[in-house]
Amino acid sequence: KAGVTQTPRYLIKTRGQQVTLSCSPISGHRSVSWYQQTPGQGLQFLFEYFSETQRNKGNFPGRFSGRQFSNSRSEMNVSTLELGDSALYLCASGLGEGKQFFGPGTRLTVL
Amino acid sequence: QQPVQSPQAVILREGEDAVINCSSSKALYSVHWYRQKHGEAPVFLMILLKGGEQKGHEKISASFNEKKQQSSLYLTASQLSYSGTYFCGTEISSGTASKLTFGTGTRLQVTL
Question: Could you report the per-residue pLDDT of A33-75, keeping only the tens digit for each?
Fold first, then answer.
């Protein structure tokens, strides 16, 4: 089975811009979770989508949003980028219970 | 609230043992352990459920003390391939495995 894929792998944006990240889960997985990883805060949960519905949400501002399509692919959008949004964004797919499979991440740099 | 991992970093010689602890201030349903090598995605190691038994994975095993809300990861006879950052992820209720609260990580380096 192919693993979790994320595109793009690297992004450079400037403050105030918006960005969209994409995640394709493992075939058959209906749950996609998004995490932000920074050296200071570690891995922090953003939100989870299951069968096109947001099922869980972390403590991030409304600038962070996402969606999931009928084929389980998911996108994450960040509007009005701030310097502090620079991070590695990881998505993880699973069956909704148990272990998750992480993608390689998208490295976002905000200048 | 983020679980606390200890130690923050450890350096081992190949063949030595290590223990990584993960403590939570909240009652836990399960603890998940992941390892992330530099520049790579976190990889699942194991899950420990409340009321479950100690789990093992090759020479890596873990336990879950429900009274203390603490999990420990045991690495025995460490190998170079064990190097990486270990994260515990906690789940406070059933059905939230996809919404883990991760600890800050323990950086493990195994040397010759």
Answer: 999 999 888 899 999 999 999 998 999 999 999 999 999 999 9
Give the three-class secondary structure for A85. Answer: helix
CA distance A43 to A35: 6
Counted residue by residue, chain B has a size of 112
Question: Could you tell me which residues come within 8 angstroms of residue A46 by beta carbon, excluding any fewer than 6 positions away?
Answer: A33, A34, A35, A36, A57, A58, A60, A64, A66, A76, A89
CB contact under 8 A, B102 and A42: yes
Amino acid, res. B84? G
- Which of B36, B99, B100, B101 to mutate to probe the A interface, most A CBs <10 Å? B99
Test A92 with B98 for CB contact under 8 angstroms: yes
- Nearest partner of B59 among B43, B42, B46, B40, judged by Cα: B46
Per-residue confidence at B56, pLDDT binned at 50, 70, 90?
Answer: low
A60 close contact with B: CB closer than 8 A: no
With vertex at residue B105, the alpha carbon angle to CA A66 and CA B102, rounded to the nearest 5 degrees, is 40
Tell me the chain A residues in contact with residue B32 when contact means C-beta distances shorter than 8 Å. Answer: 99-100
